[in-house]
Design a protein that fits this description.
Number of strands: 23
Helix content: under 10%
Strand content: 35-45%
Structural class: mainly beta
Number of helices: 2
Shape: elongated
Oligomer: single chain
């Protein structure tokens, strides 16, 4: 096994995209996706195999505990050709299938022909590999059920928050005539009884992706703080906390160590807790003779929480490393 090299990575400003699927998924139905996840808190491990576009489950292990022994798919579609993974605490190791052993690595020249990415933190680790399917790809019914006893935060990815669209009411003729003489008080309030709060994680890549060459050691770099502001889906009159333990802007930053293997690519991500709540804009005339005022359609504010509960740094490798500032939203 290649030796691991320590790497300090900078914390850098934000942006707005997330990790795309591995390119190998586009090569057709002769490829499969292998996913291994380790929950370091409860010790649970799950392992799944899907077809290239992840619409069909090819195999899965039952809920098992982490150990230094192998993890094997050897039933159903894998009865004649088992697939085995030997992985450490953070998912580094090798994969054996169809009488060939590969290294868990994003570079096919180093891995031996497969493409793998890893994500790992202090409380979980995940490996995803694109592996050629040996023989005829089976024809099965679409994926219906997946055994998962590990509760991964990494697997549930969203390109953007599913928030309601804002649609402000158009003023009528009377409102237009009164606009010049009738002053209004503009305010923002919770929509509905309680704003329908939802809990989210915001994942942000906070460093450049650093590639470790075959001959050079990745050098440490300085860490720096970064800030995250509330996300707003409509023309907000003013930010409100809605009575939730949130803040408009949150600044954080620290030094975190990720391990890069020789020839590998590694980066640092940060996961920050948010609360999303629904609000509305309200306009009330100062003079009641000017009418009843107006209320906008509801829209959403998603604000960072005040505390650090659950927020964490984690490391990613291979194609899980995008550009600094890449982001994704994950339900919690």
């Amino acid at each position: 096994m290649p030796s691991l090299q320590s790497l300090f990575l900078s914390l850098l400003p934000l942006g707005m995209v997330f990790s795309a699927p591995l390119e190998a998924r586009q090569t057709g139905d002769k490829m499969m996706v292998i996913n291994w996840h380790h929950n370091k808190v409860n010790g649970g491990v799950s392992m799944h195999a899907f077809n290239a576009d992840e619409t069909m489950l090819l195999g899965q292990t039952p809920c098992i505990k982490f150990s230094d022994t192998a993890y094997t798919l050897d039933t159903g579609n894998f009865f004649n050709l088992p697939l085995t993974m030997h992985l450490d605490y953070n998912g580094f190791g090798n994969l054996t299938y169809a009488e060939k052993t590969y290294i868990i690595h994003w570079n096919k020249q180093i891995s031996g022909g497969i493409e793998c990415s890893r994500i790992y933190s202090d409380d979980e680790a995940e490996v995803e590999c694109i592996v050629p399917w040996a023989g005829q790809m089976p024809v099965e019914s679409p994926l219906k059920f997946v055994v998962d006893c590990t509760a991964s935060r990494f697997q549930r990815r969203y390109a953007a928050l599913p928030v309601p669209e804002v649609s402000l009411p158009k003023p009528n003729a009377l409102e237009l005539r009164q606009a010049a003489s009738c002053a209004v008080i503009q305010d923002t309030k919770l929509a509905g009884d309680n704003g329908s709060p939802q809990n989210w994680w915001l994942n942000t890549q906070i460093s450049e992706a650093v590639e470790c060459s075959n001959s050079e050691v990745c050098s440490p770099s300085r860490s720096e703080s970064f800030s995250v502001s509330a996300s707003i889906s409509g023309p907000l009159y003013k930010w409100i906390d809605g009575g939730f333990p949130v803040q408009k802007t949150k600044q954080t930053g620290d030094q975190y160590t990720c391990e890069g293997v020789v020839g590998g690519k590694v980066c640092v991500w940060y996961q920050m807790a948010h609360i999303q709540y629904t609000v509305k804009n309200v306009e009330d005339p100062v003079d009641t003779s000017c009418g009843k005022g107006s209320v906008s359609a509801p829209f959403a504010i998603t604000s960072p929480t005040k505390d650090e509960e659950g927020s964490k740094f984690f490391c990613a490798t291979g194609n899980k490393c995008q550009s600094k500032g890449s982001q994704s939203w994950v339900r919690r």
